[in-house]
Amino acid sequence: MPLFIFLHGSLSYFYPASHYIFMQQDALILELQKGNERAFERIYHLYSESTYGIIFTIIRDEKVAEEVLQDVFLKIWDKAPSYNSDKGRFFTWILNIARNASIDKIRSKDFKNDQQNLKTDNFVDILEAKTNFSEAVDSIGLKKYIDALKPVCKKLIDYLFFKGYTQKETSEELDIPLGTVKTRNRVCIDKLRAMVIK
């Protein structure tokens, strides 16, 4: 995965570079919202690996996933002032941007997706269960846990989250009742969470 190519002008050093390594999340986000590119660089370092993992799982093409990753972080830079911690966690916000951008890319290739159903928060809870802000999230580890689930759960998670199908569309595609899809969705996410946090 290539390093992020910064397309903006000269970096604005509000503090020495080493300052941002130990900066707490709230302070780092605040600096990002002020347009501090050093803070942005640190955000990229912390979250690019896990964000790429989600994008690649949806796109399933390394080159395209890398392109989408660049677009996602440009959006993070542009949209940072609009982030509101009262409406959700920062990582949830990033993954929403990444997931939407990935599905938009798939849609551009005539992939149908009218509604996104499985909440990103479920996966954020799982991803963050064994990590903290000072460590990059192990997205590859998440794939390992998903692969360990029963085939029915793997297929359901693939359709609802990574392919962006609605529960109704998943019901029709897999030829199972809608109520069954909803129940299995909850059960599978609970199993995935239990595997990660045990």
TrEMBL record:
Pfam families to which the protein is assigned, alphabetical: Sigma70_r2, Sigma70_r4
Superkingdom of the organism of origin: Bacteria
NCBIfam families: sigma70-ECF
Domain RNA polymerase sigma-70 region: 45-110, 147-194
Gene Ontology MF: a single term: DNA binding
Record PANTHER family: RNA POLYMERASE ECF-TYPE SIGMA FACTO, RNA POLYMERASE SIGMA FACTOR SIGZ
Family listed: Belongs to the sigma-70 factor family. ECF subfamily.
Keywords, alphabetical: DNA-binding, Sigma factor, Transcription, Transcription regulation
Alphabetical list of Gene3D superfamilies matching this protein: 1.10.1740.10, Winged helix-like DNA-binding domain superfamily/Winged helix DNA-binding domain (1.10.10.10)
One GO-annotated biological process of the protein: DNA-templated transcription initiation
UniProt-recorded name of the protein: RNA polymerase sigma factor
InterPro entries xref list: RNA_pol_sigma-70-like (IPR039425), RNA_pol_sigma-70_dom (IPR014284), RNA_pol_sigma70_ECF_CS (IPR000838), RNA_pol_sigma70_r2 (IPR007627), RNA_pol_sigma70_r4 (IPR007630), RNA_pol_sigma_r2 (IPR013325), RNA_pol_sigma_r3/r4-like (IPR013324), WH-like_DNA-bd_sf (IPR036388)
